[in-house]
Structure formats: C-alpha cells, structure tokens
Specification:
The complex is a heterodimer.
Chain A lengths: L2 H29 L5 H20 L3 H18 L7 H21 L7 H17 L41 H4 L7 E7 L1 H5 L4 H13 L7 E5 L18 E6 L5 H8 L6 E7 L9 H16 L9 H4 L5 H9 L5 E3 L1 H15 L20 H25 L5 H28 E3 L1 H17 L4 E6 L4 E3 H22 L3 H6 L6 E10 L2 E8 L6 H10 L11 H6 L22 H10 L3 E7 L3 E9 L7 E6 L2 E6 L11 H6 L1 H20 L4
Parallel strand pairs in A: 7-9
Antiparallel strand pairs in A: 1-3, 1-4, 2-3, 2-5, 6-8, 9-10, 10-12, 11-12, 13-14
Helix pairs in contact in A: 1-2, 1-4, 2-3, 3-4, 3-5, 4-5, 8-9, 8-13, 14-15, 16-17, 17-21
Chain B lengths: L7 E5 L3 H13 L3 E5 L2 H10 L6 E5 L7 H9 L9 E5 L4 H10 L3 E4 L4 H11 L2
The chains are: A alpha+beta, B alpha/beta.
Chain lengths: 672, 127
C-alpha cells in the first residue's frame, strides 16, 4: 500500500474513533429513551460510514459485521423495529465488537471470532424479526467482496436501474454481426438536460469509444428537422435535436449500451448493425423495440406536435433511419461541429443565471495536528518567561524612561497572558471523550461480575487539557472497574439493604478553584474498614498494634500491593491496585482523596491541574540563588515582621544552639 | 485517452476517509477538487466557489442535509440547473437510485470505486 493510502488509512481509523463515539452517544441516548429520528440516523450513519470506509480498504471482517449491524439498524430507522432495552443492549454489545474489529484492523489484538459470531447472530435475530426488511442482510452480493476492480463499469450490474431491459438483451447479436458498422441513433428528452447530462457528453463518449479502434473515426449526423423557427414556438429548455452515429465495426454493442446506461430513462436510443434487416427478428431489432418502448414509458412531458419523431416511439429502426437520413433538413457534420451545436442547444436551454442566493454557512472547525499546537504552546511559554524577565528588569530602576517602559511591559503582560489562555483553550477538550469510553468499561465490568450497574455521567462538557484527557483514561478505567467489582454489592445484598438492585456509579467533572475535580462515586457498601485493616496487617503493610484513624484506614487502599478482593477476579485483582492510580494521578500533578460511608458508598475525588503545559511558579531567592517553586506546591506564604521573630525567639535560640552543637560535634570528629 | 483538463470537481461527503480518497484520486488525475462535509456545507461551498465546479460528486447519507436534499437544492438554483451530479452509493437499493434520479442526479458511482472508474465517470459527464 502506498504512503498515500497509508495516510488515508490513518484518516479512516481516526474517523472510526469519531464514529464509534458518535455511535455510543446515540445508543446511550436511545437506551435513555430518546426516539428522535436524528439520533437514530446518526447511529445508522456511523455504522454506515465505517462500513463504507472499510470496504475501500478491503477490511472484510469489518465490512461483514458492519453490514449486518447496519441492516439491523435499518429496521430501527424505518420504524419497523422498536428500540426496546433488549434490542439496545444487543446494539451496545455489537458496538463493542465493532470497536474491537476496528482495533483489530488497526493491528491490535485479534477479536475472538465466537464473540463476533454471537453478536452477529443476535443482530440477525433482530433482522429476522423485522418483517419489513428485505432479508438480504447476510447475502454477500451487497457486500463488495472484491474491492479493487472496476465497480464502476458503466454496463455492469451495479448500474442497473429499474427495469432497464434495454441493455440486457444485447449481447447475443454482437458477435454474429460484428462485420458491419454499428449505427447508433439517439434522441434525448428534455429531462436528460435537466439532470445535468448533455448530448455532447454522449457524443464525446462515443468518440472515445471509436478512438480505441484502428479506424478511429465516427460519422455523426444531426437531425434538426424538429427544430422550430426562432419564434414564440421555440422553447429553449426543450430538446429538439437527435443524432445518428456510425461507429467502426469493431465496437461491441455492449460498450455502446454502457455509454447510454445513465440516460436509458431519459433518452431514446437504438443500436443496430448496419445492413442487418430489423424485421428479421435478430437480436438487434428486438433490442431496438425494447429500448424505444421503455423510453416512451418513462417520458412524461413530451409534446407530440413539436417532436413528431420521438413520439412515434414504437417506430422501428427503419423508420427512424429514414427520417434521419431524409435529405430535407439533416446534414452530415463532423463530431466537432456537432459538439458545437449541442453546446448551443445546451446554453440556449439554460436560463439566464438568477442573482446568487445568500451564501450558506461554511465550515466552522478545522483539524489541526496536535504537534503544531504543542509548538505554539511552547512558544507562548517562552514568551511568558521572556516577558516576566523583562518586567523584573524594569522594576530595578525608576527613571522616567523606565516608568514608560514598565507601562508597556505591563500591557504586554496582559497580552501574553491572553495569548496563553487562548492557546490553552485550543488544547482544551471536553472530558466527554474519555467519560464515554467509561460506559463501555462499566458495561463490561458489570457483565463479567453479573451485576447490574448504571454509570451516570455529569459535567462531561468540562474542558481540560488534551494531554490530561488522554492520561486520565487508564486511572479512571481502573477506578471504575474497582467500583463495579468491589464497590457495588451483589443484587441480593443490595435488595436486603433496601437499595435498588441496580447499582449506580456517578462519574462527574467540574472546575474548582483553578483545578479540575473528578469524582467517582458509587452507592455500594462502602469500605469495610475492619477487613481493610486485617488485610493490611496480613500483608505487613501496618503492624498489628498501629493506631489508625478511619481516614488512615481508607488511605491504606492506596498502599502498594494492597488488594482486598476475596477471590482474584478477572477484573481488578491483578495485583496492581489503587496505588497505581494514585501514582498516575500524582504524576499529573494531582491528588486523590477517598471518603466512604459504610453501607452508603465510596467517593474518590481526583483533583488535577488545568493544564500540564504551563506551571505557574513562585520565585524565591535564598543564599544568593534564585529558585522557582511550582505554585501548586506552595501551601502558604507569609509576610514576616521583626516582632514575629521576637515572638519565636526562644525557638530560634534553641535552633541555633542545636546547630552549634552539631557543628562542634562534627568538628570534633574531623568530619568537617 | 485524451488528457484531462483542469476541471473543478466538488465532492460532498461526511466521511473524511472518502473525502481523502476522492481528493487523492481526482487530484492525481489532474482535477481541481473542492470539498464540503455535508449537504449544507457542500451547498455553501458550491455557491461561493470561484470558478463554479464542473461536476459534483455527493454521498447520500449525510447529517444535516443528505444527498437527495443537496441535489434538489442544487437543481433549484438556476445557474446550477445543468451541472452534472454523480451520486456515491453503496446502496444496491433501486428505490434509492430512483429517488436520486428523480431529484436530478446525472449518474452513480458505486463504492468502493477504483481511480480509473472514478475518472471515467467524471469524463463521461464533463466532455
């Protein structure tokens, strides 16, 4: 595959991600009872797009599954199938399979084919129950099995339109009669021009066809007998001309039919071998009949008085030919001049252009490579630093020039801050992307533990730095799995405790005093502190006689190597525990806190900085060195006055005394 | 094959994959390509295009305004009454084709397509 195709494949995978998100959003809305057509259409479109793209790259597994999925969704779209909770559940499951198939195509893990088959069978059941469906979902003919070859062969089955019998009966005669020139006559309807086609195009295509033969010439005769004199009778949007084209004998009739395929319903045409007696019942003549007949069926606004030739649609080839060759008004011309006259007709037919309508809205968003924004962010960071250095220089002196300089530097400071904010806003992304992925995490975790859990999302529109969004995925996945596995109790326990059988986990995000606060809250059993304590002692994390507050015990969950799972479950008992989560959050400059009420649930709070790109710092100078401390690490700053020193003079004295003792001790030992 | 002139083609599709493929194929064949991400956007691009495109290729299934809507809207504008419109479709549904036809489509391109077939289709309607 060439580099170009590789690039496009990358675009396709990116798009798949978007479409899968769209799909998830739509299906979640459906499961919440949404019934709007637009939602259903969006869901359908997402699957359809994935299928279309996948077909272009020959990703057969993906295409086949997407196709069945699409067919099942089609019933929903046409209101033949109702989105009951069971059906939406099947769709959600299929979406997960689809998503995995996309990852597989991307080079990820192979998807378990049994799982794919299972989902496919469930989808097929929906299709089967859908009475209005044509039931063609699994037939392979609609799926392009071979994606490279010319699907766009004009004469191929891909184009057969309605009961276009004209082109179907042709092949039989072509070989037998290939010795003599092929004569094509055609007369476009008004409709052909209205659909953006032109006799010129047809003639040009025929010319191209002729150019493939050794002879290479074609003889074109234009019949202008129907053209009225230029007066009130002349209607510029009507079609008055017809043509007769003689093609070299080598050309197959099929090829000619292919040229006319798109216009079979809006143009009368005949294809015959010269010298063949139309009455003899050869393939050519029967074909002539069908095509003209077919045409007369579909022509709607023909006026017999202006176009006598074409109205006698059942005319045989003979009569058409004689009328075309009638010496009165037809003349032999070259293809080029025919083109010219066709052009005239076309331009005469088009009405003067009306004033352009009000332009519609243009694209409102663009995609920018993240690296470019990072680069911009770096530059802005440098600018902020340079500006800060400049203003600190300005503060040193106080001449009048300096004061002016200080003013401009201050104005610049405001600007640079604004630019910084603007660039950060570009990088900002709603947490929705990662939150929505959590739906799947919870769904899978719930089905593995046989629990019924609903994830409620709040504040998905909260915007955070993009890098942060990406790095949140793993910690959140882990926390939510834990919440489902350890937090939410089994249904019978819940019912006994007077709760609903269905567990609830709330994932929310919001801004709090310049930081992002993300909470994961479950309504499960809360932390069993006795057990946590026992486990911690057992694992040697604490000594048996340690005195711990409730908070201390809760925080033991974050201790490395801690796991309270009674049995090692598939989900969370892998040895990596909440300590990994805590470490990940701390690496992002965040903090994790935990609070729990026995019997009512547990809440984890993540507090994160708004961005990782720029940190505000506090400059301090000590012992002649200047240092920066990140503002996030500064707990408190105080103004120190002399009397405060006097107030704590005693402590200072003790401190100095201790220092002197140490010094003396070290000196004694010759260590210093 | 006669060499292709620098004709301008408007492609309308909500799939970025398809848009990239169309752009690559058409630009490779020497066409000038302008694009719109859905029917409404395509219509906006069409009306603002200088010079106007010589042909339009559109998808059917799109958000906001679908292919049928676009074709009808384009045919409703006098200066675009005759511009050839090709419909991109994977649908084998004759009803859908009939609908596109009734709306004023000139022809079809069946997805997935090869570059040759795409260019042949464009040549067929822009002689």
């Amino acid at each position: 595959m060439s580099d170009d195709m590789d690039d496009i494949l990358q675009v396709f995978f990116q798009e798949c991600d978007d479409q899968l998100q769209e799909l998830e959003r739509g299906l979640m809305a459906l499961s919440d009872g949404a019934t709007e057509h637009e939602t259903i259409n969006a869901v359908f479109r997402a699957v359809h797009s994935i299928k279309g793209g996948a077909a272009s790259f020959g990703l057969e597994n993906l295409v086949h599954f997407a196709h069945v999925f699409e067919s099942a969704l089609d019933g929903l779209r046409s209101d033949r199938v109702q989105p009951t909770p069971e059906i939406v559940k099947v769709f959600l499951k299929s979406m997960d399979v689809l998503s995995d198939l996309v990852s597989e195509a991307r080079g990820g893990d192979a998807v378990d084919s049994a799982r794919v088959e299972e989902s496919r069978a469930e989808l097929q059941k929906i299709i089967d129950s859908d009475s209005g469906s044509s039931g063609e979902a699994t037939t392979d003919d609609v799926i392009p099995t071979d994606f490279v070859p010319v699907a766009f062969d004009f004469g191929s089955d891909g184009f057969d339109f309605g009961e276009d019998s004209a082109s179907d009966t042709s092949s039989s005669s072509s070989e037998a009669l290939s010795g003599s020139a092929l004569v094509v006559t055609f007369c476009p309807h008004d409709d052909m021009y209205a659909r953006g086609d032109d006799a010129r195009n047809l003639l040009k295509s025929l010319e191209d066809l002729a150019a493939t033969t050794p002879d290479g010439t074609l003889h074109v005769t234009c019949d202008r007998s129907n053209l009225p004199v230029l007066d009130a009778e002349f209607n510029p949007v009507k079609s008055y001309l017809s043509w007769r084209v003689e093609l070299p004998a080598e050309i197959q009739e099929d090829a000619v039919h292919a040229v006319f395929d798109w216009v079979s319903d809006v143009c009368d045409f005949t294809v015959t071998r010269q010298g063949n007696d139309p009455g003899s019942g050869g393939g050519g003549s029967s074909k002539t009949d069908t095509s003209t007949e077919n045409a007369s069926d579909s022509q709607s606004n023909f006026q017999p008085d202006t176009l006598p030739e074409t109205t006698s649609a059942s005319a045989t080839q003979q009569s058409l030919e004689s009328s075309l060759s009638a010496p009165t008004q037809s003349s032999s011309v070259s293809a080029a001049s025919v083109q010219a006259s066709a052009k005239q007709t076309a331009s005469a037919a088009s009405q003067p252009a009306a004033a352009a309508r009000k332009p519609l809205e243009q694209a409102v968003s663009i995609r920018v490579d993240l690296h470019r924004i990072d680069e911009l962010m770096d530059l802005v960071g440098e600018l902020v630093i340079a500006q800060a250095a400049l203003s600190s220089v300005c503060r040193k002196d106080d001449s009048s020039v300096q004061r002016e300089l200080t003013e401009s530097v201050n104005a610049m400071q405001i600007l640079t801050r604004d630019i910084q904010d603007a660039v950060m806003a570009v990088r900002a992304q709603p947490v929705r992307t990662v939150f929505q992925r959590m739906q799947r995490v919870v769904r899978e975790a719930a089905s593995m533990t046989n629990k019924n859990v609903v994830l409620i999302l709040e504040g998905e529109d909260t915007e955070v730095d993009r890098t942060l969004v990406e790095k949140l995925t793993d910690p959140l996945t882990h926390m939510l799995r834990n919440a489902v596995d350890h937090g939410i109790e089994n249904a019978d326990v819940r019912l006994a405790a007077g709760k609903t059988a269905e567990g609830h986990i709330t994932l929310s995000a919001g801004h709090r005093s310049g930081r992002i606060l993300i909470t994961v809250k479950d309504d499960g059993g809360g932390i069993n502190r006795d057990r946590v304590r026992a486990v911690a002692i057992e694992k040697g994390i604490i000594t048996p006689d340690a005195v711990l507050t409730e908070e201390d015990i809760d925080n033991l969950l974050f201790a490395p190597g801690f796991s309270t799972a009674q049995k090692i479950s598939d989900l969370s008992g892998r040895g990596v525990g909440m300590d990994v989560v805590k470490q990940a959050i701390m690496n992002l400059g965040g903090r994790v806190t935990i609070s729990s009420v026995p019997g009512q649930g547990t809440t984890f709070c993540l507090s994160l900085p708004l961005t990782l790109a720029v940190l505000d710092g506090m400059l301090i100078s000590a012992g002649g060195s200047i240092m920066v401390i990140p503002i996030s690490s500064v707990v408190e700053t105080m103004l120190c006055l002399i009397k405060m020193f006097i107030f704590c003079l005693k402590e200072i004295m003790w401190f100095l005394f201790a220092v002197i003792i140490c010094r003396w001790y070290l000196w004694q030992k010759n260590w210093v | 094959m006669v060499e292709t002139q620098a004709l301008r083609i408007l492609t309308v599709d909500d799939s970025r994959t398809m848009q990239s493929m169309l752009r690559k194929a058409l630009e490779g064949a020497g066409y000038d390509v302008i694009q719109g991400g859905d029917g409404l956007e395509g219509l906006g691009v069409l009306q603002n295009a200088m010079p106007p495109p010589n042909a339009i290729i559109t998808d059917i299934n799109m958000p906001r305004m679908d292919g049928f809507g676009l074709i009808e809207a384009v045919r409703g504008i006098d200066r675009f009454k005759r511009v050839p419109i090709l419909v991109l479709t994977t649908e084998s549904d004759p009803e859908k084709k009939a609908r596109a036809r009734a709306a004023g489509a000139t022809g079809w391109i069946v997805k997935p397509f090869s570059t040759d077939s795409l260019v042949a289709a464009i040549r067929r309607v822009t002689a």
